[in-house]
Amino acid sequence: MKTRLITPTPSAHAYPLLIKNLLDTPLIYSPDQEIVYRDQRRYTYKTFSRRVKQLAAMLENSGVRPGDTVAVMDWDSHRYLECFFAVPMMGAVLHTINIRLTPEQLIYTINHAEDDVILVNTEFVPLLESVKDRFNTVKKVVVLSDTGEIPESDLDFAGEYEALMAETPAEYDFTEFDENTMATTFYTTGTTGMPKGVFFSHRQIVLHTYATLSVLCGYAHQANITSNDVYMPMTPMFHVHAWGMPYLMTLLGAKQVYPGRYEPEMLLKLILTENVTYSHCVPTIMNMLVTSPAINQVDLTGWKVIIGGSALSRGLCAQALKHGINLYTGYGMSETCPVLTLAMIKPHLMETDQDEQVAIRCMTGLPIPHVQMKIVDMAGKELPHDGKTAGEVVVRAPWLTQGYIKSEEKSEELWADGWLHTGDIGVIDAQGYLRITDRLKDVIKTGGEWISSLELEDIISRHEAVSEVAVVGVADDKWGERPLAMVVIKDAFRGTVSEKDIQDHCMGFVEKGQIPKYGVPTRIILDADIPKTSVGKISKKDIRSQYQ
To answer: Is 129 exposed, middle or buried (0-12, 13-18, 19+ CB in 10 A)?
Structure first.
């Protein structure tokens, strides 16, 4: 095949895809738009740009150089947004630390990432103090304080964030460099052993930003967004760049609201007072909101929310829709930057009844632009898109992590055969919709068949009394495994629902042929605390460990 390579003009500029260029358009289009932190602070994009320069200059004065790593331990805040830009824009690496790690995991990630400077919220100072004697590379620690006060501590602080910023002129020249320069790193959770480090370049983050821009703003579906939307994340900013949405909403020049610690009353207050129209969260956060008595005092009509991290059940989706929340699923992983799919309702399906629309909203969704996706069997053979045949979901996209930090073996496993292996089992239908049926490790092997724990959770969630549910397989001498369900009952139904009621509800789906009889959980634990991971996902590993 004949190809023709482009030979650039010697004086032509080779434009690199750098995070700093995401800031150009909003400063022209909407420089006076607001960025808000709780009910404590608000400023414009012009001020934001000035503070990004100040932060870079402050970090440089603290000894940070290109290639160094700056770690952040904070709630979702304007400060975090400033770090999203300033740190990678100066050629350093932003390490977003999971604030819910154990001390052992925390010091492992700090040393493994080779952090040079740590910015820490006063609330997490005790956690950082517990590991300070084991720092290998940390040179300075800066305090992040809402009050400006520095707490008494054994840590030797370099100063307080705002005070240091005030002493620093807003003068910094963000130079150009290779777009493949590492911009961010963070560590996965929910696996055995210590967390694994993933990393992303400027090019990957910019391409991810433009792909999400095209699908959320350009394609007609039930929840389009524009620069007129008001954005508030409810997914921690330490978790996969808050799904990359702060970069997207900054590019759009939209109003942004950062809630700090997630508290139902504060979240609902900000939604109401700041007119929030667009958010994203895990199911446990949405469940916390829709079960809060305060929700009945707030009009949430038109609030668009993407659910990710765990499967969206039809029960939770229907409950949210009753409150006017435009809820639907997004899918990705720490390794994928993260967005791979969104459960967009295609225009010709907009007129279907609510039950059908709920079913689509709860699907894993359609791949966004530049995502190649297929399902394969255990031998790597591609399987048909018939909505029935299940296989492992494997993907390609220009923003996927190229491997795990300092772990060649795990990186090769992740990228076996040149496709990133998600570890999820799913089906793809003729219209291109992906539906994850389970994790490879969570499928219940019973009665000679595989039963989807996610399908059982979805069925149980449709009982009117169920607030939250988790299903795992536990060992059984006769069947190999049997389903065990942990069920949280809504307050209004406490004391009126038994294990048999839940089993009878499941039997209705056996009669419809949706699940086999041995798919009905033989053991149901009512009103137990369902274990969660550090990012709010249901921890099936801990449930299996507890009840195996």
So the answer is: middle
> Catalytic: which of 445, 464, 500, 517?
445
Is 53 catalytic? The answer is no
Rounded to two decimals, the pTM is 0.86
Q: Which of 46, 450, 532, 541 is catalytic?
A: 450
Within a domain: 401: no
Per-chain mean pLDDT for the chain: 94
**Residues 53 and 90 grouped into a single domain:** yes
| Active-site residue, from 82, 179, 335, 468 | 335
Name the DSSP letter for residue 345.
P
pLDDT higher than threshold 80 for residue 1: no
Out of 69, 181, 185, 188, the active site residue is 188
Quick one: 243 and 159 in the same domain? no
What H or E segment, with its residue span, contains residue 354? helix 354-361
Q: What is the pLDDT of residues 220-275, one digit of tens each?
A: 999 999 999 999 999 999 999 999 999 999 999 999 999 999 988 899 899 999 99
Q: For residue 265, what pLDDT is reported?
A: 87
Residues 6+ apart with CB under 8 A from 397: 211, 336, 337, 340, 370, 371, 372
- 82 counts as catalytic: no
Residues 453 and 497 in one domain: yes
Which whole number is the average pLDDT over 133-146? 98
Is 445 known to be catalytic? yes
Q: How many domains does the chain have?
A: 3
Q: Which amino acid is at 473?
A: G
In a domain? residue 218 = yes
Q: Is 450 a catalytic residue?
A: yes
